[in-house]
Amino acid sequence: MSTITIDTLRFATAGSVDDGKSTLVGRLLHDSKSVLTDQLEAVQRVSADRGQDAPDLALLTDGLRAEREQGITIDVAYRYFATPKRRFILADTPGHVQYTRDMVTGASTAELAIVLIDARNGVVEQTLRHAAVAALLRVPHVVLAVNKMDLVGYEQAVFERIVEEFAGHAAELGLPSFTPIPVSAMVGDNVVDRSAHMDWYEGPALLEFLENVPVGADPSDAPARFPVQYVIRDGEVRWYAGQLVSGSLRVGDRVTVLPSGETSEITGISVLGPGAEAAYAPQSVSLRLADQRDVSRGDMITAGADAPALTQDVRAAVCHLADRPLRVGDRVLLRHTTRTVKAVVRDLGGAPELTANDLGRITLRTAEPLALDDYAVSRRTGAFLVIDPADGATLTAGMADLT
Asked: Which of the four pLDDT bands, split at 50, 70 and 90, describes residue 76?
């Protein structure tokens, strides 16, 4: 009997305050029949207590008490739902400027970002900030959802003017492409079902687009990258355990261990105990090498022909996450995959410092070489964190730019 494989799309939402993002997510969940009966009854009860005629679908997503009381989203919330065509993991991120770092968190693993705009207000500063984050994180697909079209009379001219303005900014930000969709989250136009009010729009409804957008490339097709997490000693034999974050490895493959540059051959692969002839990303496996090499946590085993170049001068786009500012000359730790090295901040792109939620550029000099990939090539091995050596707190999220 044949089986049908249903894939998963991870996507994030972003929008300025009062653009209707929580309502959009609530409508998406409600109209796709992804809301439990008791959840809907609770929303109907709270909405009635507030004197509202219809259920406030934003209550389905603003789960924290503080969010419900203030009517804003202040934390990243992950929602899981499915249709017959696809499973979804939704990162619902805050819209305020002081929560930009939360959008970075939510979008860092997303394959698609929905940037919401209030049709009455058009493109605002936060719209551009969220588009910049999507470009910075190399999110493969971006949807520009122009919301509250019912409040501008479903006018095609309003929609087209906003799309044209956003397109100009997108080009400046390095956002290669986006898909514009006119919606009304409150009414339900073009969210799950096509709108009868906008016959001039010939594209898909939002859910239709989410169900059919191509999901990212198979990570096993990329060059092999195996950051070592643990060294397991079995008598005289050493096994190196970790996750194969990209590519594939086979018994008999010649590999290079970085940063030492030593080479060897894979003589054994263990996947959850049993032996295997090959491993594919993103499997967690153990590898055995032919030679007794000095391999430890933080080293990276790579396919010999596709090994990344080592560097101690790290240039990157960043989002500063901590309340403590980052300044030139600061001594920090840089954590890349399973490797942590000492580093010093050499340059902040001309800025005197980076403060919480700032987007910027940085240059660091590390005490030891790193096997970095360009973030544009690999989001897994091109990303890193800057850590406070005093207390281990995360300061900055970085995306390597080695070009």
From this structure: low
Percent of the chain exceeding pLDDT 90 equals: 56
H or E segment to which residue 165 belongs:
helix 156-173
What is the pLDDT, as a whole number, of residue 20?
79
DSSP codes, 280-333: ETT-EEEEEESS-----TT-EEEEGGGPPPPEEEEEEEEEE-SSS-EETT-EEE
Q: Name which of 301, 220, 217, 222 is nearest 267 in CA terms.
A: 301
Establish whether the linkage from the previous residue to 259 is cis, with ω within 30° of 0. Answer: yes
Strand partners, 288: 239, 268
Position 373 pLDDT exceeds 80:
yes
Contact between 337 and 379 (Cβ < 8 Å): no
Q: What's the pTM value of the predicted model, to 2 decimals?
A: 0.81
Q: Quote the pLDDT of residue 301.
A: 96
Long-range own/partner contacts, residues 171-180 (CB < 8 A, 24 or more apart): 173/128, 173/131, 173/132, 173/135, 174/135, 175/131, 175/134, 175/135, 175/142, 177/142, 178/115, 178/142, 178/143, 178/144, 179/141, 179/142, 179/143, 179/144, 179/203, 179/209, 180/143, 180/144, 180/146
CA distance 285 to 29: 37
Residue 152 reports pLDDT greater than 90: yes
